[in-house]
TrEMBL record:
InterPro entries: AAA+_ATPase (IPR003593), ABC_transporter-like_ATP-bd (IPR003439), ABC_transporter_ATP-binding (IPR050763), P-loop_NTPase (IPR027417). CDD domains: ABC_NatA_like. The keyword Ligase does not apply. It is found in: Cell membrane. Residues 24-263 form the ABC transporter domain. GO terms for molecular function: ATP binding; ATP hydrolysis activity. Its main location: membrane. GO terms for biological process: response to antibiotic. GO terms for cellular component: plasma membrane. This is Methionine ABC transporter ATP-binding protein. It is a peripheral membrane protein.
Length: 334
Protein backbone atom coordinates (compact mmCIF):
# COMPACT_ATOMS: atom_id res chain seq x y z
CA UNK A 1 0.00 0.00 0.00
CA UNK A 2 1.11 3.59 -0.44
CA UNK A 3 1.77 5.92 2.46
CA UNK A 4 -1.17 7.20 4.48
CA UNK A 5 -1.21 10.97 4.59
CA UNK A 6 -2.90 13.15 7.12
CA UNK A 7 -4.16 16.70 6.82
CA UNK A 8 -0.63 17.97 7.37
CA UNK A 9 1.03 19.65 10.31
CA UNK A 10 -0.09 23.15 9.35
CA UNK A 11 2.00 26.08 8.23
CA UNK A 12 5.66 26.15 9.16
CA UNK A 13 6.26 29.01 11.58
CA UNK A 14 10.03 29.24 11.74
CA UNK A 15 13.23 28.08 10.14
CA UNK A 16 13.69 24.36 9.55
CA UNK A 17 15.94 22.74 12.15
CA UNK A 18 15.64 19.09 11.06
CA UNK A 19 15.42 18.00 7.44
CA UNK A 20 15.34 14.51 5.89
CA UNK A 21 15.09 14.00 2.13
CA UNK A 22 14.67 10.50 0.69
CA UNK A 23 16.58 8.91 3.55
CA UNK A 24 17.13 5.14 3.52
CA UNK A 25 18.95 2.75 5.82
CA UNK A 26 19.68 -0.78 4.70
CA UNK A 27 21.37 -3.40 6.87
CA UNK A 28 23.02 -6.58 5.61
CA UNK A 29 21.85 -9.42 7.86
CA UNK A 30 23.59 -12.77 7.75
CA UNK A 31 21.85 -15.96 8.82
CA UNK A 32 22.84 -19.60 8.91
CA UNK A 33 21.18 -21.70 6.20
CA UNK A 34 23.05 -24.95 6.77
CA UNK A 35 26.29 -26.45 8.02
CA UNK A 36 29.04 -23.91 7.28
CA UNK A 37 26.64 -22.03 5.01
CA UNK A 38 25.39 -18.49 5.55
CA UNK A 39 23.05 -16.31 3.58
CA UNK A 40 23.12 -12.52 3.47
CA UNK A 41 19.95 -10.55 2.92
CA UNK A 42 19.10 -6.87 3.00
CA UNK A 43 16.81 -5.44 5.66
CA UNK A 44 15.43 -1.99 4.87
CA UNK A 45 14.95 -0.33 8.27
CA UNK A 46 14.14 3.12 6.85
CA UNK A 47 12.67 3.60 3.40
CA UNK A 48 12.46 6.91 1.46
CA UNK A 49 11.89 8.99 4.60
CA UNK A 50 11.22 12.68 3.97
CA UNK A 51 10.09 15.30 6.50
CA UNK A 52 11.07 18.60 8.11
CA UNK A 53 10.75 19.88 11.67
CA UNK A 54 10.70 23.66 12.26
CA UNK A 55 12.64 25.18 15.13
CA UNK A 56 10.69 25.23 18.40
CA UNK A 57 8.22 22.43 17.55
CA UNK A 58 7.45 19.36 19.70
CA UNK A 59 6.77 16.41 17.40
CA UNK A 60 5.61 12.94 18.36
CA UNK A 61 7.40 10.26 16.32
CA UNK A 62 5.55 7.01 16.86
CA UNK A 63 5.09 3.54 15.47
CA UNK A 64 5.18 -0.13 16.46
CA UNK A 65 8.34 -1.85 17.65
CA UNK A 66 10.74 -2.38 14.75
CA UNK A 67 9.16 0.37 12.64
CA UNK A 68 12.41 2.32 12.25
CA UNK A 69 12.09 4.97 14.97
CA UNK A 70 15.36 4.27 16.75
CA UNK A 71 17.21 3.90 13.45
CA UNK A 72 15.97 7.35 12.44
CA UNK A 73 17.12 8.88 15.73
CA UNK A 74 20.54 7.23 15.40
CA UNK A 75 20.94 8.71 11.91
CA UNK A 76 19.86 12.14 13.17
CA UNK A 77 22.54 12.00 15.86
CA UNK A 78 25.27 10.67 13.55
CA UNK A 79 25.54 7.25 15.19
CA UNK A 80 24.44 5.65 11.92
CA UNK A 81 25.14 6.80 8.37
CA UNK A 82 22.20 6.69 5.93
CA UNK A 83 22.47 4.34 2.98
CA UNK A 84 20.89 6.98 0.76
CA UNK A 85 19.30 10.41 1.01
CA UNK A 86 20.19 13.63 2.79
CA UNK A 87 19.97 14.64 6.47
CA UNK A 88 20.59 18.05 7.98
CA UNK A 89 20.22 19.04 11.64
CA UNK A 90 20.82 22.74 12.32
CA UNK A 91 22.50 22.83 8.90
CA UNK A 92 24.92 20.05 9.86
CA UNK A 93 25.34 16.63 8.25
CA UNK A 94 25.23 14.37 11.35
CA UNK A 95 27.34 11.55 9.94
CA UNK A 96 30.11 13.87 8.74
CA UNK A 97 30.26 16.31 11.67
CA UNK A 98 29.07 14.29 14.63
CA UNK A 99 31.31 16.05 17.17
CA UNK A 100 30.21 19.51 16.06
CA UNK A 101 26.57 18.45 16.13
CA UNK A 102 26.87 16.95 19.63
CA UNK A 103 27.08 20.42 21.16
CA UNK A 104 23.69 21.33 19.68
CA UNK A 105 21.64 18.23 20.50
CA UNK A 106 20.54 16.31 23.58
CA UNK A 107 19.60 12.63 23.51
CA UNK A 108 17.82 10.29 25.92
CA UNK A 109 17.76 6.70 24.66
CA UNK A 110 15.07 4.86 26.63
CA UNK A 111 16.68 1.86 28.28
CA UNK A 112 20.26 3.06 27.68
CA UNK A 113 21.85 5.58 29.98
CA UNK A 114 24.51 8.19 29.28
CA UNK A 115 25.29 8.39 33.00
CA UNK A 116 28.37 6.83 34.60
CA UNK A 117 27.09 3.60 36.14
CA UNK A 118 29.33 3.35 39.23
CA UNK A 119 29.61 7.06 40.04
CA UNK A 120 27.22 9.34 41.92
CA UNK A 121 24.75 11.15 39.68
CA UNK A 122 26.38 14.54 40.31
CA UNK A 123 29.69 13.26 38.90
CA UNK A 124 28.06 12.61 35.51
CA UNK A 125 26.82 16.19 35.52
CA UNK A 126 30.26 17.53 36.42
CA UNK A 127 31.72 15.55 33.53
CA UNK A 128 29.13 17.05 31.14
CA UNK A 129 30.06 20.48 32.50
CA UNK A 130 33.67 19.96 31.40
CA UNK A 131 33.02 17.96 28.25
CA UNK A 132 30.62 20.52 26.75
CA UNK A 133 32.58 23.47 28.17
CA UNK A 134 29.45 24.93 29.70
CA UNK A 135 30.05 28.34 31.34
CA UNK A 136 30.03 27.94 35.13
CA UNK A 137 27.09 30.27 35.76
CA UNK A 138 24.99 28.64 33.04
CA UNK A 139 25.85 25.16 34.30
CA UNK A 140 24.77 26.01 37.86
CA UNK A 141 21.56 27.65 36.61
CA UNK A 142 20.62 24.68 34.40
CA UNK A 143 21.55 22.12 37.05
CA UNK A 144 19.58 23.87 39.79
CA UNK A 145 16.52 24.13 37.55
CA UNK A 146 16.65 20.48 36.51
CA UNK A 147 17.26 19.29 40.07
CA UNK A 148 14.29 21.28 41.34
CA UNK A 149 11.77 20.45 38.63
CA UNK A 150 12.76 16.79 38.26
CA UNK A 151 13.21 16.32 42.04
CA UNK A 152 16.78 15.06 41.87
CA UNK A 153 18.10 16.70 45.05
CA UNK A 154 18.20 13.55 47.17
CA UNK A 155 19.67 11.51 44.31
CA UNK A 156 22.74 13.56 43.41
CA UNK A 157 25.10 11.59 45.67
CA UNK A 158 23.59 8.18 44.83
CA UNK A 159 25.53 5.90 42.42
CA UNK A 160 23.63 5.56 39.16
CA UNK A 161 23.51 1.76 39.49
CA UNK A 162 21.36 2.17 42.62
CA UNK A 163 18.74 4.36 40.96
CA UNK A 164 15.39 2.97 39.90
CA UNK A 165 14.48 3.12 36.21
CA UNK A 166 12.25 6.14 36.79
CA UNK A 167 14.93 7.96 38.78
CA UNK A 168 17.55 7.22 36.14
CA UNK A 169 15.26 8.48 33.37
CA UNK A 170 14.90 11.80 35.19
CA UNK A 171 18.65 11.88 35.67
CA UNK A 172 19.25 11.24 31.96
CA UNK A 173 16.83 14.00 30.93
CA UNK A 174 18.70 16.48 33.13
CA UNK A 175 22.08 15.38 31.73
CA UNK A 176 20.82 15.89 28.16
CA UNK A 177 19.82 19.50 28.89
CA UNK A 178 22.78 20.91 30.81
CA UNK A 179 24.47 22.28 27.67
CA UNK A 180 21.32 24.03 26.31
CA UNK A 181 20.77 21.87 23.20
CA UNK A 182 18.74 23.30 20.34
CA UNK A 183 17.06 19.96 19.71
CA UNK A 184 16.22 17.19 22.16
CA UNK A 185 15.61 13.59 21.07
CA UNK A 186 13.59 11.62 23.62
CA UNK A 187 13.02 7.87 23.39
CA UNK A 188 10.31 6.80 25.89
CA UNK A 189 11.06 9.59 28.42
CA UNK A 190 8.27 8.57 30.83
CA UNK A 191 8.94 4.82 30.87
CA UNK A 192 9.06 3.44 34.40
CA UNK A 193 7.65 6.63 35.94
CA UNK A 194 4.63 6.77 38.23
CA UNK A 195 1.67 9.00 37.38
CA UNK A 196 2.94 11.97 39.40
CA UNK A 197 6.45 11.75 37.94
CA UNK A 198 5.08 11.47 34.40
CA UNK A 199 3.06 14.65 34.91
CA UNK A 200 6.15 16.42 36.28
CA UNK A 201 8.31 15.42 33.30
CA UNK A 202 5.63 16.52 30.83
CA UNK A 203 5.28 19.88 32.54
CA UNK A 204 9.06 20.26 32.53
CA UNK A 205 9.25 19.58 28.78
CA UNK A 206 6.39 22.01 28.03
CA UNK A 207 8.12 24.76 30.02
CA UNK A 208 11.46 24.01 28.36
CA UNK A 209 9.90 24.36 24.93
CA UNK A 210 7.97 27.50 25.82
CA UNK A 211 10.79 29.32 27.61
CA UNK A 212 13.82 28.30 25.53
CA UNK A 213 12.27 27.23 22.23
CA UNK A 214 13.91 23.80 22.41
CA UNK A 215 12.84 21.57 19.53
CA UNK A 216 11.75 18.12 20.72
CA UNK A 217 11.39 14.88 18.76
CA UNK A 218 9.58 12.43 21.02
CA UNK A 219 9.14 8.69 20.56
CA UNK A 220 6.75 7.00 22.97
CA UNK A 221 4.13 4.28 23.35
CA UNK A 222 2.15 6.44 25.80
CA UNK A 223 -0.53 8.37 23.92
CA UNK A 224 -0.93 10.70 26.89
CA UNK A 225 2.63 11.93 26.29
CA UNK A 226 1.64 12.79 22.73
CA UNK A 227 -1.69 14.37 23.65
CA UNK A 228 -0.22 16.62 26.32
CA UNK A 229 2.96 17.65 24.52
CA UNK A 230 2.57 17.45 20.75
CA UNK A 231 0.50 19.36 18.22
CA UNK A 232 1.96 17.26 15.43
CA UNK A 233 2.50 13.51 15.22
CA UNK A 234 4.34 11.43 12.63
CA UNK A 235 3.72 7.69 12.30
CA UNK A 236 6.39 5.42 10.86
CA UNK A 237 5.75 1.79 9.97
CA UNK A 238 8.06 -0.62 8.14
CA UNK A 239 10.47 2.28 7.67
CA UNK A 240 7.97 4.50 5.86
CA UNK A 241 6.19 7.63 7.01
CA UNK A 242 2.52 6.70 6.87
CA UNK A 243 0.99 9.71 8.62
CA UNK A 244 2.03 13.30 9.33
CA UNK A 245 -0.45 15.66 10.96
CA UNK A 246 -2.39 16.45 14.15
CA UNK A 247 -3.28 13.72 16.65
CA UNK A 248 -7.00 14.24 16.04
CA UNK A 249 -6.45 13.41 12.39
CA UNK A 250 -4.60 10.23 13.36
CA UNK A 251 -7.57 9.09 15.41
CA UNK A 252 -9.86 9.78 12.46
CA UNK A 253 -7.67 7.91 9.98
CA UNK A 254 -7.22 4.99 12.37
CA UNK A 255 -10.79 5.11 13.64
CA UNK A 256 -9.36 4.58 17.12
CA UNK A 257 -11.47 4.14 20.23
CA UNK A 258 -11.13 4.97 23.90
CA UNK A 259 -12.57 2.70 26.55
CA UNK A 260 -14.83 3.72 29.41
CA UNK A 261 -14.61 1.22 32.27
CA UNK A 262 -17.78 1.50 34.36
CA UNK A 263 -18.32 -0.06 37.78
CA UNK A 264 -22.02 -0.19 38.71
CA UNK A 265 -23.36 -0.75 42.19
CA UNK A 266 -24.90 -4.04 41.06
CA UNK A 267 -24.96 -6.33 38.06
CA UNK A 268 -27.19 -5.01 35.28
CA UNK A 269 -27.83 -5.65 31.55
CA UNK A 270 -25.45 -3.91 29.12
CA UNK A 271 -25.56 -0.11 29.30
CA UNK A 272 -27.44 1.40 26.37
CA UNK A 273 -26.07 4.73 25.09
CA UNK A 274 -27.28 4.31 21.53
CA UNK A 275 -24.72 5.19 18.85
CA UNK A 276 -22.57 7.19 21.30
CA UNK A 277 -20.82 4.09 22.68
CA UNK A 278 -20.96 0.31 22.49
CA UNK A 279 -20.51 -2.27 25.21
CA UNK A 280 -17.62 -4.58 24.38
CA UNK A 281 -17.42 -6.58 27.61
CA UNK A 282 -19.43 -7.25 30.77
CA UNK A 283 -18.14 -8.94 33.93
CA UNK A 284 -20.58 -8.75 36.81
CA UNK A 285 -21.14 -5.09 37.75
CA UNK A 286 -18.20 -3.95 35.57
CA UNK A 287 -18.76 -2.98 31.94
CA UNK A 288 -16.40 -1.81 29.19
CA UNK A 289 -17.76 0.69 26.65
CA UNK A 290 -15.87 1.77 23.50
CA UNK A 291 -16.35 5.22 21.98
CA UNK A 292 -14.49 7.26 19.31
CA UNK A 293 -11.17 8.61 20.58
CA UNK A 294 -11.81 12.00 19.03
CA UNK A 295 -14.98 12.37 21.15
CA UNK A 296 -15.34 13.57 24.73
CA UNK A 297 -16.09 11.19 27.60
CA UNK A 298 -17.88 13.89 29.60
CA UNK A 299 -21.38 13.53 28.04
CA UNK A 300 -21.17 9.73 28.31
CA UNK A 301 -20.22 9.94 31.96
CA UNK A 302 -23.06 12.38 32.62
CA UNK A 303 -25.63 10.08 30.99
CA UNK A 304 -24.39 7.00 32.84
CA UNK A 305 -24.39 8.85 36.18
CA UNK A 306 -27.95 10.07 35.56
CA UNK A 307 -29.43 6.78 34.34
CA UNK A 308 -27.47 4.06 36.16
CA UNK A 309 -26.31 3.32 39.75
CA UNK A 310 -22.68 4.35 39.18
CA UNK A 311 -20.00 3.34 41.68
CA UNK A 312 -16.81 4.23 39.82
CA UNK A 313 -15.37 4.67 36.32
CA UNK A 314 -12.14 5.29 34.43
CA UNK A 315 -11.09 6.11 30.87
CA UNK A 316 -8.44 4.09 29.05
CA UNK A 317 -6.59 5.59 26.11
CA UNK A 318 -6.11 3.61 22.89
CA UNK A 319 -2.78 1.84 22.47
CA UNK A 320 -0.63 3.31 19.71
CA UNK A 321 -0.08 -0.10 18.14
CA UNK A 322 -3.86 -0.59 18.06
CA UNK A 323 -4.36 2.79 16.37
CA UNK A 324 -1.83 1.96 13.68
CA UNK A 325 -3.24 -1.55 13.22
CA UNK A 326 -6.70 -0.06 12.62
CA UNK A 327 -5.20 2.29 10.02
CA UNK A 328 -4.26 -0.77 7.98
CA UNK A 329 -7.34 -2.87 8.71
CA UNK A 330 -9.33 -3.51 5.58
CA UNK A 331 -6.90 -1.72 3.26
CA UNK A 332 -6.11 -3.57 0.02
CA UNK A 333 -2.67 -5.04 -0.27
CA UNK A 334 -2.04 -5.23 3.46
Amino acid sequence: MGPVTGPGPGPVTGDVLISLDGVEKVFDVRRRTGFLRRETREVRAVDSLTFTVPRGEIVGYIGPNGAGKSTTIKMLTGILTPSAGRIRVAGIDPSRERTRLARRIGVVFGQRTTLWWDLPLIDSYRLAHRMYRIPDARYRENLDRCVELLQLGELLDVPVRQLSLGQRMRGDIAAALLHDPEVLYLDEPTIGLDVVSKARVREFLRDLNAERGTTVLLTTHDLTDIEQLCRRVMVIDHGRLVYDGPLTGLHEVGESERTLVVDLERELPPIDLGDAARVVKVEGPRQWLAFPARGSAAPLVARIAAEYPLADLSVREPDIEAVIARMYAGRPGV
